[in-house]
Amino acid sequence: MTEGILIVGTGALASLFAAKISATGIPVTMLGNWKEGLAALRLYGVTLVQPDGKQKAYPIRVVDDSSDCVGMKYALVLVKSWQTARAAKQLKKCLSDDGIAVTLQNGLGNREILESILGEERVALGVTTTGATLLSSGRVRPGGQGLISLGEHPRLEPIREYLKSAGFKLETIKNTDTLIWSKLVVNAAINPITALLKVSNGSLLSRASARQLSADLAKEVASLASAQGIQLSFKNPVAAAEKVAKGTENNHSSMYQDIQRGAPTEIDAICGEVVRLGKELGVQTPVNYTVWKLINAIIEGLNMGIEKEYKGKSND
Asked: Which of 69, 165, 174, 210, CA to CA, is 20 to 30 A from 26?
């Protein structure tokens, strides 16, 4: 029997990966805490809705208790950055001693949190520019063909094969700092602006002012990487961010989707961390600071006005 894979999370990307991997016949288990999402997944499986409207549901196993998935050898971590510590504690119970958990999350600090609980030998780093939109609980629409970049790890090969067979485009990058910071450039350039303007990724390119803000964010993050001696996977950070925006033009960023449903965002792990590190290193990051505060101000307003309505709706 083919070894299965555990996906930690039940949000947009988690659902996309679950559907595409399940479609290949590989057993998929999803571990989450979002009750509404778990209920829908148990009833109907995970449904992949194509841009042309065609849809198909794929069977998965759904659990909300890590003791129900003990002994899993392979895991993908696809929860929000503010949920990483909880995910790590869950994985400590269910990941086998010779297992491997791959983080494909946004922002800084996720790998370190996972390693502190699971150990370095059981954690691998990856990033992805693949987009997805959660249409409703358990129903996901792909947001354009992205790329999955993985670091090197002796236990990674089976997961690489799973992802390849599911149709994902892969590459290997030896330097993990390159992985993290190249993705951070893209996240900072696209996510907060699309969330603030309530637009798709591609709309950034058709609005001159939005495009300039996005470029400024990208350049600030690239400057911070340079100050640390980190080489990015591209020479032009603005062009790289715009390439991703174009490739996922119809997708709504995860931060946009978070704000639309009144959920916490990953702004602290993206722009907030850029600002914090900028202060430490003496690198000016005024645009990141501004959008960081603006996004948090929106969330504060939502919490003050409709806190009860959104209580419990933060999907992982």
From this structure: 174
Pairing of strands 46-49, 123-128: unpaired
Global pTM? 0.88
Taking Cα atoms as reference points, which of 275, 278, 271 lies closest to residue 292?
Answer: 271
Are 217 and 188 spatial neighbours (Cβ–Cβ below 8 Å)?
A: yes
Contacts of residue 226, defined as CB under 8 A and 6 or more positions apart, other chains included, come to: none
Range of the domain at 75: 5-172
Question: What CATH number does the domain containing 104 carry?
Answer: 3.40.50.720
Within the chain, residue ranges assigned H as helices are: 12-22, 35-44, 84-94, 110-118, 157-165, 176-197, 208-227, 237-247, 254-260, 273-281, 286-310
Q: Helix or strand or coil: residue 53?
A: coil
pLDDT at 306 over 60: no
Domain count of the chain? 2
Domain containing 268 — which CATH number? 1.10.1040.10
Cα separation, 69 vs 73, in Å, equals 10
Residues 27 and 151 in one domain: yes
316 within some domain: no
Q: Where are the beta strands (DSSP E) in 137-239?
A: 139-142, 147-150, 169-172
Pair 98, 200 in one domain: no
CB 16 within 8 A of CB 140: yes
Contact 265, 291 (CB under 8 A): no
* Tens digit of each residue's pLDDT (9 = 90 or more) over 151-186: 989 999 999 999 999 999 999 988 989 999 999 999
Q: What is the pLDDT of residues 245-279, one digit of tens each?
A: 999 998 899 999 999 988 899 999 999 999 999 99
Residues 105, 25 within the same domain = yes
List, for residues 97-125, the tens digit of each pLDDT value. Answer: 999 999 999 999 999 999 999 999 999 99
